[in-house]
Structures are given as C-alpha cells and as structure tokens.
C-alpha cells in the first residue's frame, strides 16, 4: 500500500484517460472532456505537491524513485499538459469525431513522461519512453491529411530506429555490468579499474549508443532529422507539446541516467561531459543557421528547438565536468527547462489562434497582425524575445544561469559560441516581430479565440515575465530538486 500511495499521481492520470475515453462514447457535449481532463491533471498535481519535500524513496523493487527531482518534472509535465489541453479547445474541431482519443493520448503521454522522470532501472526507462513515444506517434498523425500522415510515419520510423539504438546500448551496458538498476551499474563501473573499463570497448559503445538514442528524443544534432517535418505536419497543439514536454522528458532521463549510473569515476563523467559540449556547440550553430531561411513559422521554431537543445546541453556538459556534489549545472538546467516550456508554449498558443484564422503557417501571412490582433501579436513578441534571451523575459535569466555555471567550470569557449548563436537567432525571431508590427495587414478582420485559449496564453506569458523578473522562487525549487537523487 505504501508503494501505491506514492504512485497516486500516475494512477490518477491513467484513470482520467480511461474515463475520458468512456465519456466520449456517451455524452454529446464534448466540452466536458476538457473539464474532466483538466480535473484529472489538477488532482494529480495536488497529490504531487503533497509529496514535495519528503525524504527520497525507491518503490516497486527500486524501479521508480520518489524524490524531489522526479516531483519537479512531474509538476512540469502536468502544467504543460494542462496548457496544451486548454489551447486545444479551438483546434479540436479539425478532428471532432476523435476528441476523446485526443485528450486521452495527451494524458497517457504525460503519464509516460512522469514515469521517465522517476525511473531508475533500464527496462522501466525503456517502457516509460515507449509509452510516451507511441502516444506521440499517434497524436502527430491526428489531422489525417497528407502532411500530418507523412509526419507521423517519419516520426514512427525514425523513432523506432532510435529506440532500437537505445535498447542496443542498454543491452551492452547490462552485458558488461550485469546490472539494470542505475545505482548498481554505477557500483559495477566504479569497481573496475581504468584499465578494466578501457579494455571493455563494448561498455563505452553502449554509453555512446544510449547518448544517440536519447539524443533523438531531445532533438539534438545529428539526431534531429525528424524535427522540421514533424513540427510542420503535426497539429499545432501537438507541435507545442512535442517541443517542450518531449524535450524536458528527454533531459530528465539523461540527467538521471548519466548522473546516477555514469557520474563516477570522474574521468568517465568528464568524457561524456565534453561529448555533450561538442554536440551543444554543433547543435546550436546548425539549428540557428538553418532557421534563418525558413518561411514556415512551425519549421522555423523546429530548427529553433534544435538550437535550444544545444543551449540546454551546455547545462549537461557542466553537469559532467562539475563534481558530483556541485548542483549548479543541474539546477540551472532545470530552471532553463521550466522557462523554455512556458516560452515555447506561449509562442505556439498564439500561433494556434492566428493560424486558425489565416489557415496558413507562412511567416509572410502574419503581416500586420499587430493591427488585427494586437494582444496575440504582443504575446508572440514577448515569447520570441524570451527565446532570444533578452530581458525582462524568462529566457534571459535561464541563459544567465546556465552560462554562468558553464563559465565557472571552464567552459568559457562554449559560452562564447552560445552567445554568438543567441545574436544570430535574433535575426529570424525579430523578422517575425517586424512582419507582425510593421507589415500591412491583408484584411482588417479580427482574429477570434476562445476563452480557454486566451487563459492558457495569459498563464504562459505571465510565467515568462515572472521568471524573468523574479526567478528566485523557481530557481530555489530547481536547486532542491537537483540535490535529490535516489540510485
């Protein structure tokens, strides 16, 4: 029973998904599906908050950890899911017959992400990851038009390859350590001498293959090839969901695995830290450069997402290079993920409202949007400024924290590359702002949106401003979460 008490948030979300599917069969007013879905998310969040600050525990034979690190990410995923559900209310008319399945899949993918943040054993990590991935494969193809179907198929095929690579890497790690539990893997590696580890190239190959498999989930170069097509073809709320929730889940599991299993000996940690540093430099540079010529705003934000993964990997590199007791890299990475989630969600929610009216995602069609829908244009402008990393938005503080930590640990060269890339990114972000505010509108028609969408957009933008002006509270939560790991 103790195990079940600590597993209540996940059970609540699973039960809510089942209830939503059953309700869809019997009630004619589909608006209730939104209410029930949000109620389930709120209840799950309430149980999660009630566990915050307690002692770290491992449940289900040490397969899942209940610690502040897992709880931080669970709250983040629940908040993202709630905002996506609210933002979808204007969009679900495009697949009116499948609203129950849509909301249930969003909830199930959030459940998988919550499990990903808590898993401490290789087999359960893989199962949680596949629960998330399969739900997202289906959601990407929900529009059932040629672009959406193509995006779903590409995502499925490339995701299957990435999962196979990850599983092969896990099998190699298990083969050379004889363990699947992260803490036991760490003990087995530490028991080997340097010569013993170097004499086991299969173990090193396993770690590299795991980086490749997880790299696909966070859209890191060179595992990014799915991003632009999937972002363009997927329903816009799901593009938003993919861009923040899937990425946050990937970073959560990478932090858990690499800190817990491969954090010691120090030379091994330094090696994977430098590998992430190189991937960060390449990712942010290519992502920003390729984003410049994009004419579709969803594709542009897709390449932007690749660049943002590069910035986030600066934090991973810091975690690898820093000592095990130093929480600067971990806490700044957690804060960056929270601010990025609010920022990108705000941008995509505004895009949902505008694109619904324009029936177009081309940047040129956003011309004069500042006159037609000034509040939507203002919200999108704020979020784009935050993505650049300009004050007073959350992105500025997020980059400040993550870059400061990197400089403290000898990664000044990487921070210089990151700052140069932030300047490059200003070109394509501000181009959208220029088109919206200085361009001539194609018509004087206003852009309508539902109260639920406006509420979700207001929450996102308020969060972007608050984290930019008074980041202390969330940063303290991130620091508490970063200290807590159960192996």
Structural account:
The chain is mainly alpha-helical and 487 residues long. The chain is 77% helix and 1% strand. The chain has one domain. A two-stranded antiparallel sheet has the order 1-2. Strand 1 (57-59) and strand 2 form a beta hairpin. The mean pLDDT is 90.
Helix content bin: over 70%
Strand order of the largest sheet: 1-2
Q: Quick one: overall form?
A: globular
Measured between the Cα atoms of the first and last residue, the distance is: 22 Å
Order of helices and strands: HHHEEHHHHHHHHHHHHHHHHHH
Give the number of helices.
Answer: 21
Number of domains: 1
Radius of gyration: 21 Å
* Largest sheet features: 2 strands, antiparallel
Structural class, please?
mainly alpha
> Could you tell me the number of beta strands?
2
Strand content: under 5%
Instruction: Return the average pLDDT rounded to an integer.
Output: 90
Oligomeric assembly: single chain
Which residue ranges are poorly predicted, with pLDDT under 50 across at least 5 consecutive positions? none
């Amino acid at each position: 029973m103790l195990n079940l008490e600590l597993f209540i948030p996940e059970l609540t979300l699973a039960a809510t998904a089942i209830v939503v599917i059953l309700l869809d069969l019997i009630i004619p007013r589909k608006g209730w599906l939104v209410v029930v879905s949000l109620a389930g998310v709120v209840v799950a969040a309430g149980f999660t908050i009630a566990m915050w600050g307690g002692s770290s525990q491992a449940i289900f034979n040490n397969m899942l950890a209940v610690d502040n690190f897992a709880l931080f990410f669970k709250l983040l995923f629940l908040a993202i899911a709630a905002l996506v559900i609210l933002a979808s209310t204007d969009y679900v008319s495009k697949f009116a017959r499948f609203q129950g399945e849509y909301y249930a899949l969003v909830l199930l993918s959030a459940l998988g992400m919550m499990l990903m943040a808590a898993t401490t054993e290789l087999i359960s990590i893989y199962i949680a990851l596949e629960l998330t991935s399969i739900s997202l494969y289906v959601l990407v193809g929900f529009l059932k038009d040629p672009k959406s179907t193509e995006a779903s198929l590409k995502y499925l095929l490339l995701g299957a390859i990435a999962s196979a690579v990850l599983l092969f890497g896990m099998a190699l790690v298990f083969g050379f350590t004889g363990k699947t539990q992260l803490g036991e893997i760490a003990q087995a590696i530490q028991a080997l001498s340097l010569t013993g580890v170097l004499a086991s190239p299969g173990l090193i190959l396993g770690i590299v293959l795991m980086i490749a498999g997880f790299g696909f989930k966070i859209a890191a170069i060179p595992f990014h090839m799915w991003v632009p097509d999937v972002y363009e073809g997927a329903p816009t709320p799901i593009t938003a969901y993919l861009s923040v929730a899937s990425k946050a889940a990937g970073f959560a599991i990478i932090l858990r695995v690499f800190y817990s299993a491969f954090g010691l000996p120090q030379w091994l940690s330094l090696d994977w830290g430098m590998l992430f540093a190189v991937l960060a430099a390449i990712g942010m540079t290519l992502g920003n450069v390729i984003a410049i010529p994009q004419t579709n705003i969803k594709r542009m934000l897709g390449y932007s997402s690749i660049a943002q993964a590069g910035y986030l990997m600066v934090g991973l590199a810091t975690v690898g290079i820093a000592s095990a007791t130093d929480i600067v890299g971990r806490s700044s990475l957690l804060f960056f993920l929270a601010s990025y989630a609010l920022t990108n969600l705000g941008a995509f929610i505004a895009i949902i409202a505008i694109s619904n009216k324009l029936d177009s995602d081309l940047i040129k069609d956003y011309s004069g949007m500042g006159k037609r829908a000034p509040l939507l244009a203002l919200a999108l402008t704020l979020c784009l400024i935050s993505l650049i990393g300009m004050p007073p938005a959350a992105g500025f503080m997020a980059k400040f924290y993550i870059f400061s930590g990197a400089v403290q640990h000898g990664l000044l060269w990487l921070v210089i590359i990151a700052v140069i890339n932030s300047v490059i990114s200003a070109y394509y972000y501000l181009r959208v702002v220029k088109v919206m505010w200085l361009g001539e509108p194609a018509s004087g028609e206003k852009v309508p949106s539902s109260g639920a969408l406006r509420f979700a957009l207001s929450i996102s933008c308020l969060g972007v401003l608050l984290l930019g002006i008074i980041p202390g509270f969330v940063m303290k939560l991130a620091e508490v979460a970063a200290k807590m790991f159960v192996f």
